[in-house]
Each structure stands twice: as C-alpha cells, then as structure tokens.
Design brief:
With 416 residues, the chain is of the alpha/beta class. 41% of the residues lie in helices and 11% in strands. Strands 1, 2, 3, 4, 5, 6, 7, 8 and 9 form a nine-stranded parallel β-sheet that branches. The longest helix is centred in the last third of the chain and has 20 residues. It is globular.
C-alpha cells in the first residue's frame, strides 16, 4: 500500500481502544509544531481512499493574511484547514488565493495579490511536512507518493485591472500556475465578467495577448466568473485546454455565474474541465428562488465596492476581516436545503452534456457556498463519492471526476 493510501486509511481507524496514538502518526513536526489531528469517524469508501482526489477551487490565505492564523492548525470555524483536508482524503487542491473587489477602488489589487501569493508560499513551507507546492502534474504525483498533499496555486480576482503582462510573468516566477481571467465579479481592461457590464463583448485584443502569454508560459486559464461570450472566445483563442473551476449549469439554475450548455460544450471541445461548485445557489433551483424572494443577495457586486469611499489598504483589510472566514453562516429552511445526492445529479447533468472526461469538482470551500446537508467542511469530501456511487457510477468514472480530469489538464498545459 502506498504511503498516501496508508495516511488516508488511518483516518478511518477508531480512537477508542487504540493501542497507539494515531494522532502522532498523522502529525509530523512542522517548524517545531505538531499539526493537531482531531480524528473523527466519518465514512470514507475504499474507492475514495485509493483515488486521486483534487479540489479545483479551495479558498485559502484570506484569513491567514488578515488574522495571522496558520492553515496547518485546525480551525474551530470555516471549512478548510490542512488537518480537515487530510481527513477528507484530499490529495491536491487548486490553492485559490483571492483578491476581492474591496481592494479595487484604491487600486490595491496588485499589492494584495502579491501579498497572498507570498503568504501562500510561506504557509506551504511552514507546513512542508504535510503539503508542498506543485508546478506540474508530475510534481503533484511526486508529492503524493511521499504521502503529502499538493498545492497548485490559482488566482481568483484581479492580478492587475490593467492587465500588465510583466506582472503576470512575475507571478509565474513566484509559482502561480493558474489564473482566473476576470477580476472576480468585475469586468477589467481585457475581459467581461458575467456579473458586470459588457465592455468588450467578451475579450479584447489585450485579452488575447494575455491568453497567448499564459499559453506560452504554461499556465492554466480559468474562465470562471467570465461572461458567456468571454468563455466562448477564450476557448477559441487558447491553444491549450481551459477550465471553468467552480460553478453550476445555467440550464439548472439561471444564475449569471452558472455556465451555459453552449459554453460548457466549448470548454469540453477544447479538452477542458468544468468544476462543480458545492453551493445551493448555483445548483438548487428551489433555494435560488427562495433567496431571490428574500431580496437580500449576498454576492459582492462591482457597484457595491465602486461606490465605496477610497480607503487605505489597512482600512480595507479591517473591512474584509469582518467577513472572515468567508463561509456561509445563514440558516436554510429544510425545504430549500440541498442534499448531496442532488449535487451529484448536477454532476450527472454535466456528464450527459459533455462527457465524463470533462467533469470535476471545484467546491469553493471557504468562499461562501451554502453546503449540502451532509457536508460541513472539507473533511466530508467523501460524501460526494458516496453520492456518485449511489448514482451507479463506475469506479473509473468517479476517479476521473474526483481528480484525474484536473490532473490531465494540468499535464497538458504545464507540459509535465
């Protein structure tokens, strides 16, 4: 049995009656500190334990930056930390560093991007006994063979609203290997967001240059949050597969963040992958209708930050810190609360639409999703495997969706 499988299987052992401290087996020293693993008896099917599991969109570093915390420690709140990720059998994740709209009015988006990328590298190094930075698919496989998780850096939010390619190259040198083109929900100087005004009718000439540069560097192009036209044009312009890291299907929930069948087919035709979000807002029509009826949309809109007075970056930090951790804290009535089996049927819709080679999971954990009843945090990741098994999916299909499809795209784009 591989060391990675041993570590996954240990999370299934009961604490009661143990003749040795399981916690010590899972907690290697990290700069002098042990990572505390509070093991819980949660279901993990054998298939999940053996499969390569990769999350295509996991929020990290916002709380670490603003609260001085350590992702290697178990948090009492939020949905992501390394101990719980290991309990969930996660082998790799798109380590999605985030620059929200709050930093845009003062043009602090570039400064914040470099802050969170640098902090991600620091946190990965600090917890090097558990996680390592991966630049290629081969790196991910090498890291997993050592029994560790792999972090594949992905940027959500504007690296520079003006689209300076020199800054993009600098981020690449720091280890960034995947980037969302839009400035979160905001249209920037080169691509339209699905939640903002259309300035370019999709992408403009600068957008095409940035796509070409990312192709040349070997960076994964992420079209999540982009307008329908922008997704279609990006898929056409790119030489490599593109990904839609996290969202639902517009045919199921008519939210602008959800991908249309047309765009999904274009991503798949390019060899790309669509990651299904774990939130009810994008996957449960009943919940979406209920939220609309409440008249209190939660999602950050460009107008809400553009109307704000320009502040210092320290003042912006304090405002954002009020929202940390970035997870859903509301109450969902039972009739609108999605079960994981309903989420699995959204995946099944995608499989029937574009094929099993183009579907994956991008949870958006710690990014605000209204999680299914059966999923409280990343330690419950095996629940989606159980749900796919209940659909009658073959082991091979499940393995593709759990992570092999992400790995394939990374290999194709990075060349390794």
């Amino acid at each position: 049995m591989k060391r990675r499988d041993v570590l996954k299987s240990l999370t299934m052992l009961p604490l009661a009656g143990s003749v040795f401290p399981i916690e010590s087996l899972l907690s290697a020293p990290a700069t002098g500190n042990k990572i505390p693993f509070n093991l819980q008896q949660k279901p993990m099917p054998e298939l999940h334990r053996k499969a390569f599991v990769m999350d295509g969109h996991t929020h990290v570093m916002t709380r670490e930056l603003l609260m001085g915390t350590d992702i290697g420690q178990r948090y009492p709140d939020g949905t992501v930390d390394l101990p719980r990720a290991r309990e969930g059998g996660v082998d790799a994740m798109f380590f999605s560093v985030y620059t929200p709209e709050h930093y845009y009015p003062g043009r602090f988006e570039t400064k914040n991007t470099f802050r969170v990328v640098n902090l991600a590298l620091d946190q990965i190094e600090k917890n090097s006994s558990v996680i390592e930075l991966a630049l290629t698919a081969a790196d991910i496989e090498r890291i997993n063979k050592k029994g560790k998780m792999a972090a594949f850096l992905d940027l959500e939010g504007g690296y520079d609203l003006d689209g300076d390619i020199n800054l993009l190259r600098a981020l690449y040198r720091l280890g960034l290997r995947s980037m969302q083109l839009t400035a979160h929900n905001t249209t920037n100087a080169f691509i339209d967001s699905c939640n903002d005004v259309s300035r370019w009718g999709g992408i403009n000439d600068l957008g095409k240059k940035i796509i070409a540069e990312m192709n040349s560097l070997g960076m994964v192009i992420n079209v999540a949050h982009a307008s329908n036209d922008a997704i279609l044009q990006t898929a056409e312009a790119s030489k490599h597969p593109v990904i839609y890291s996290h969202g639902g299907f517009y045919s199921i929930v008519d939210h602008p963040r959800c991908i249309t069948d047309e765009a999904a087919k274009a991503v798949a035709a390019k060899g790309g992958v669509i990651g299904i979000h774990f939130g009810s807002l994008f996957n449960n029509p009943a919940y979406r209708d209920w939220v609309v009826g409440q008249g209190t949309p939660r999602e950050t809109k460009p107008t809400t930050v553009q109307q704000a007075a320009v502040q210092t970056i320290e003042e912006v930090d304090r405002e954002v810190a009020k929202e940390v951790p970035l997870n859903f804290r509301g109450t969902i009535p039972d009739e609108y609360w999605m079960h994981v089996d309903q989420l699995a049927k959204v995946i099944d819709y995608g499989v029937n639409l574009v094929g099993e080679d183009h579907m994956a999971i991008g949870t958006d954990l710690d990014g605000g999703p209204e999680l299914p009843r059966e999923i409280k945090d990343i330690s419950d990741f095996p629940q989606i495997t159980l749900a796919m098994q209940r659909l009658g999916y073959s082991d091979q299909r499940i393995k593709k969706i759990l992570g092999l499809n992400w790995l394939r795209v990374i290999r194709q784009v990075t060349g390794g």
